[in-house]
Write the structure tokens for this entry.
Amino acid sequence: MIRVIACGKMREKWMKDGASEYLKRIGAYDKTEVVEVQDEKAPQNNSEADNRKVMEIEGERLLKAVRPNDYVILLDLAGETCDSEGLARKITELQTHGQSRITFVIGGSLGLSDAVKQRADFRWKLSDNTFPHQLCRVIVLEQIYRAFKIMNHEPYHK
């Protein structure tokens, strides 16, 4: 089972449509679930301490959604890069060794609390670029779908 736990709701129709399309495609390979946790308001004029508090609150919500035996892949700008083939290898390796529950965690717009970072089994950096966290969800779902296509030796348009 693949789970994606994300902070905040998707607001843009085109992002929702993209996420739905990839969820449908992934469904041919594995059971997939998306869990949205509430994000906190974070005005531009927040102090650094206020922003840390927001990250802690969101972190607690994210961690509540993670199950104890989940293998957690955390989207993190300070993580390791992993190309599509590498993600396919990682999923294959986890499934081969009996890890049937893989959970991708996407934090809020301010980033991740230390507690969430500590819970991660693998910290994945999508890119050197910064993306809105809602767009990250679409990208992650696309990469999961691509990984399954690679794992099953099926073509995927580049």
About this structure: The chain has five helices and five strands.
